[in-house]
Amino acid sequence: MEHPQTTFTPADERAMRRALELAASPGVPLGPNPRVGCVLIDDSGDIVAEGFHRGAGTPHAEADALARAGATARGTTAVVTLEPCNHTGRTGPCSLALIAAGVRRVVFAQPDPNPVASGGGTTLREAGVEVAQGLLLDEARALNGVWSFAVDHGRPFVTWKFATSLDGRSAAADGTSRWVSGRAARLDTHRLRALCDTMLVGTNTVAVDDPELTVRDTLDQPLERQPLRVVMGERDLDPGRRIFNDRAETVHLRTRDPHAALKELFARDRQHVFLEGGPTLAAAFLEAALVDEIVTYVAPMLLGSGTSAVGDLGITTIADAFRPTVTDVTVLDGLDGEPPNVRFTMTPGKRI
Amino acid sequence: MEHPQTTFTPADERAMRRALELAASPGVPLGPNPRVGCVLIDDSGDIVAEGFHRGAGTPHAEADALARAGATARGTTAVVTLEPCNHTGRTGPCSLALIAAGVRRVVFAQPDPNPVASGGGTTLREAGVEVAQGLLLDEARALNGVWSFAVDHGRPFVTWKFATSLDGRSAAADGTSRWVSGRAARLDTHRLRALCDTMLVGTNTVAVDDPELTVRDTLDQPLERQPLRVVMGERDLDPGRRIFNDRAETVHLRTRDPHAALKELFARDRQHVFLEGGPTLAAAFLEAALVDEIVTYVAPMLLGSGTSAVGDLGITTIADAFRPTVTDVTVLDGLDGEPPNVRFTMTPGKRI
User: How far is Cα B261 from Cα B155, in angstroms, rounded to an integer?
Assistant: First the structure.
């Protein structure tokens, strides 16, 4: 087997940085596909054509660049942020398109982790195209962190969000919970929801709190593009609950098993679940080690009693406490005269 | 009655700033007396002598300055941060000493709120000394904020400190609690303890946790000067508990009533109580509206069960939540690779 080339020219790197920039173009709709950019350069390092992927159902980045280059693609080096695909989906395999266009050399950053689509590098080499990989790999992976995670693990990335009073309560004794966190924290939550493709709660939350579970802007208006709303649990639900309104799509998964729920969601091309369920649902995900990120809003309020923000985790002694790794702590200044809230962002550093 | 003079010269203000500086001299031991500084100036505004109070049992600031000035005190203006005292304690009344020394005019910042000692201004005026008050009053009050509070209210200022996990627990299910907060937060707690003259816990904390309740430095060595250790409650305690060791003085107040406890502590010249008791004791102080400041350390740890950091406050619905006013939020970076903790400093904005 041929050893992959691992040296790159300054022109390669310049082109890759441009390809990363193209991939991250604003306005590209999030979807099940990764962000990809492609730049064709000639032997002098000058750009012949550029392209990027605009979301499911549109041409891949390589196809986009090749279409713009036309006959001038022949003899160029294609610099791509992700290994060219090798399979026929809604579009044909990019590996074959590059070969057909007479591209002489292909440089890509991240190998395609998707078993269905990978193998493009091998196909290109076998056709006599020079192939080099790994240039700016970290930057390329970061561009599609959640997508890479989901493909690597065969399930969506799970962000668990909860809000709590200073004394660990998510609702007062009578069940009222509007609001524990301040407006700044609630707006921040909508910002995070908008970065996900799925919001997940349990049937109990729907029955008790009746959330609409949409993403709203600072004027409290729903955004045009809404994540999928998912409620899991075996209980039947009143179809009049707000989660079933027509502002977004909703799925009821009739399972209590986090593994089963994530498997089903992955099959539906979901890559990033925002878990906003109550303490019991969150504890089930934690115990199954299916939480990848924890976002906690702490509000300077005391309730003294009421619903615990976190359910029983089976921990009996302090040595076994669940101590996640903190990646960020941010003080969110209060709006409209409200007090500040604090946001902790964490990753589960160890298995509980 | 003569109207107090309310205009001051630039020389008065310069002298008062210097007097404030003297009052805040480092190394002055904290005690039941306020910090006071005094500067004698001549008619040109030049300093004739300076003095400040060095703690209970030592001369007052005025006496200190007069002693240094000797005969040159005659005809000067005495600029003092606090109204000269009018009573004979361990030292004679400063009002009479100033008159005897032939001081022509007295400018002070803060009227003495202590009914036992006040009236010095009147005595001076009646003896024909010009008196002006209120110059840099806020600065002078801030210098002795806790002392002023205690004298005004007839009880010590109470700082309630508690540490909590992100989910509102102060101990795990088996009672273990070392440690919820990180080393940085524990060092910060010792810093705050050292600013108080009294540390207060309940009998239950002594029985369960057996704290030594001393102030220790960053090398975990006890400081030379220790606040009074107070345990309150009706239960008999094992004299072998660490709180009864010889590293500091300890008092057992046999009451469960916060009012009674603070009355007794005020009678013992205590001005600042650091309340570190468990949730039940803290709830009793909160319900009696006897908490003046709340310091909370939040550690990024989940326990899921165990002792609630805050006891029942009789709150049943979110509208009645206790929402203190936040005066500061600080992220305390972790030491030795520990995660950051967050410190909230608050004042009870409304009665619960």
Answer: 10
Amino acid at B340: P
- Count the Cβ atoms, other than its own, within 10 Å of residue B51: 26
pLDDT in tens, A212-271: 999 998 888 999 889 999 999 999 999 999 999 999 999 999 999 999 999 999 999 999
Q: Token pair of B91, please?
A: 């030292």
Q: Does A322 touch chain B (CB under 8 A)?
A: yes
Minimal CA separation from A243 to chain B, in Å: 23
Are A156 and A272 in contact by the 8 Å Cβ rule? The answer is yes
Give me A259's structure tokens.
């593994």
Its pTM stands at 0.88
Do the bridges between strand B77-82 and strand B37-41 make them parallel or antiparallel, or are there none, so unpaired?
A: antiparallel
Neighbours of B206 (CB within 10 A): 25
- Active-site position among A50, A62, A83, A276: A62
Q: Could you tell me if A164 lies within 8 Å of chain B, comparing CB atoms?
A: yes
Which residues of B fall within a CB distance of 8 Å from A326?
A: 300, 339-340
Q: What is the largest CA-CA distance in chain A?
A: 73
**CA dist., res. B94 & res. B96, Å (int):** 5
CB proximity B177 to A under 8 Å = yes
Radius of gyration over every alpha carbon of chain B, rounded to an integer in angstroms: 23
Q: Where are the alpha helices (DSSP H) in chain B?
A: 10-23, 61-69, 94-100, 120-126, 137-143, 145-153, 183-194, 203-209, 258-267, 279-287
* Whether B316 and A174 lie within 8 Å, measured CB to CB: yes
| Six token digits for residue B31 | 């005690």
Contact flag B303-A318 (C-beta cutoff 8 Å)? yes
Chain A residues within an 8 Å CB radius of B180: 318, 321
What is the set of active-site residues of B? 62
Q: Does B312 touch chain A (CB under 8 A)?
A: yes
